[in-house]
Amino acid sequence: MVILSGSTIxxxxxxxxxxxxxFFLAKPFGTNxxxxxxxxxxxxxxxxxxxxxxxxxxxxxxxxxxxxxxxxSATGRSVNISSSGLLVKLSPPPEMGTALSVxxxxxxxxxxxxxxxxxxxxxxGDHAAIRFxxxxxQQRELLETFVVSQPSSTLFTQA
Length: 159
What we know:
Blueprint (H helix, E strand, L loop, with lengths): L1 E4 L4 H9 L4 E4 L4 H22 L2 E2 L3 E6 L6 E10 L3 E5 L9 E6 L8 E11 L3 E8 L2 H13 L10
Parallel strand pairs: 1-2
Antiparallel strand pairs: 3-5, 4-5, 4-7, 5-6, 6-9, 7-8, 8-9
C-alpha cells in the first residue's frame, strides 16, 4: 500500500505506516520519485508472487502426524504447490492446525523432499492445505526454482 500525501509531518507518516502502508510519497512528486518507488516495490512484489504462486502438481504425497504411539499417516495426491505450501487430497485428512511432515518427489528430481508443515485448512473432498513451517535453504531454492519454471498450463506427473 502506498500513501500519497501532501503532509510530511512525521507523526502522520508514522500513523500511515502503522495502518499498513509500505511506501510513502509526498506530493508533489514527479516521474523520478514514482520510478524510484516502483523499483523499490518490484523486488518485494516478485518475492510475494514467488511465495504464493501455485502451480498444478499431481504426485503421490505421504503425510505423517501425531506422536510416536498415536502416529497417523496417509498417502494422498498433491493438487498444487507453491514455495510456501501445498494442497493435497488426503484420506483421512489431518485436523486443522495439526503439525505434520510431508514427503513428495518433484518431477525431474532424484531425491524426495521432506518438509514440515501445518494443516492450515481442511476442506471438502478430503483436501488439506498445508503451510510449510520450516524449509531449509536448499529445499526452498528447489521449490522456488520448480514453481517459477513451470508454465501456467497444467502439470500432471504420473508416478
